[in-house]
């Protein structure tokens, strides 16, 4: 079992069959994390480098845990502890790392397209752990695993994605992935946070949040990405929250067994009320758990699938 491509760069590139293969493999790997000894020898002798040039809690930790649970030698490098701060370029750093013969490099970087550049230059498999506002494919895969577990299918699901769509790599990856898997996607957010021409991807666009979440099976809330904005795109947080914040009253508009998702980190009381984030419809912590399984599956399929 192998993926059809050397790298995992985006959901735009990932095939329908590869998505199914990752989700099925992740499902079978979940059991390992429930054992008293959470470790299998599958990737013994393989080397994984987690190269995070942007901040991360969930993605970096879960890639490290995934590598270690599969017995890969797992090395973490961050911007502040690497020679990037001495002026070394990303390409020179990547070539230096490649000389140590890693099997997989996981890259998070603020520049869109940086994993694609490394994938062309290096023979190691590259996994995109988030490149600027472009894509975050492993987040979309764990989101899809969570939806499939809870709903039994992806095809025909009505998924509403609400918030800062234009700066969200999570939204973009989920749109590509979900449309490919037969779900319908409704986007809601201020017009200033809606990417131009996004309707060409096969989604519906709503300025009114209530319209988008009506009868939704899944509501995915997004954080406002202040770090990627150089101008104010809404009058105030209070006003934003009034128009696009998810609260108990708005949930009543969705399907009665709706699930509430958020990639994290959440801004409590802005896009989501705390009682909703940790309420009965929330699967936010399941998403985090599924992140480990999905990343184990990807490491296995890229580095060890043929030999297990
Ligand atoms: N969802 C996500 O990418 O979270 P982190 O930034 O904490 O990795």
Task: Describe the protein's architecture and organization.
The protein is an alpha/beta fold and 308 residues long. The chain is built from eleven helices and nine strands. It has helices at residues 16-29, 58-69, 90-98, 114-121, 137-151, 169-180, 209-213, 237-244, 248-251, 274-277, 284-304; strands spanning 47-52, 73-78, 104-109, 125-131, 158-162, 184-188, 204-206, 218-221, 259-261. The strands form two sheets. The protein has a five-stranded parallel sheet with strand order 7-6-5-8-9. Helix 1 (16-29) crosses helix 5 (137-151), helix 1 crosses helix 11 and helix 2 packs across helix 11. It is globular. It starts with 15 loop residues before the first helix and ends with a helix. The model has no long low-confidence stretch (mean pLDDT 95). The structure holds phosphoric acid mono(formamide)ester. The site of phosphoric acid mono(formamide)ester (CP) has 10 residues, from helix 2.
Percent helix range: 25-40%
Please give the alpha-carbon distance between the first and last residues.
Answer: 9 Å
Query: Largest sheet, order of strands side by side?
Result: 7-6-5-8-9
Outline: globular
Number of strands: 9
Count of helical regions = 11
Order of helices and strands: HEHEHEHEHEHEEHEHHEHH
Gyration radius from CA atoms, angstroms: 19 Å
Profile the largest sheet.
5 strands, parallel
- List the ions, cofactors and other small molecules found in this model: phosphoric acid mono(formamide)ester
Structural class, please? alpha/beta
Chain-averaged pLDDT:
95
Strand percentage, roughly?
5-15%
Low-confidence stretches: none
């Amino acid at each position: 079992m192998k993926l059809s491509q050397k790298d995992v760069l985006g959901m735009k590139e990932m095939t329908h069959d590869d998505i199914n293969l990752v989700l099925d493999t992740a499902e079978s790997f979940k059991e390992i994390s429930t054992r008293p000894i959470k470790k299998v020898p599958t990737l013994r002798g393989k080397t994984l480098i987690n190269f995070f040039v942007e901040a991360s809690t969930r993605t970096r930790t879960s890639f490290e845990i995934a590598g270690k649970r599969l017995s890969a030698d797992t090395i973490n490098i961050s911007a502040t502890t690497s020679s990037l701060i001495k002026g070394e370029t990303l390409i020179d750093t990547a070539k230096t790392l490649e000389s140590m013969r890693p099997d997989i490099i996981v890259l998070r970087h603020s520049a869109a397209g940086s994993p694609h550049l490394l994938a062309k230059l290096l023979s190691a498999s590259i996994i995109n752990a988030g490149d600027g506002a472009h894509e975050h494919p492993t987040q979309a895969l764990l989101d899809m695993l969570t939806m499939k577990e809870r709903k039994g299918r992806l095809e025909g699901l009505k998924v509403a994605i609400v918030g800062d769509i234009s700066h969200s790599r999570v939204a973009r990856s989920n749109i590509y992935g979900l449309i490919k898997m037969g779900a319908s996607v409704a986007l809601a957010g201020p017009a200033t946070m809606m990417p131009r021409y996004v309707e060409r991807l096969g989604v519906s666009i709503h300025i009114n949040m209530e319209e988008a979440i009506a009868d939704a099976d899944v509501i995915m809330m997004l954080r406002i990405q202040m770090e990627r904005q150089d101008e104010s795109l809404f009058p105030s947080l209070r006003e934003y929250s009034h128009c696009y914040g998810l609260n108990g009253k708005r949930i009543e508009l969705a399907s009665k067994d709706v699930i509430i998702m958020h990639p994290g980190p959440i801004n409590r009381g802005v896009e989501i009320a705390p009682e909703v984030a940790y309420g009965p419809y929330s699967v936010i912590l399941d998403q985090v758990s599924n992140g480990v399984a999905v990343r184990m599956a990807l490491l296995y399929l890229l580095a060890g699938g043929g030999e297990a």
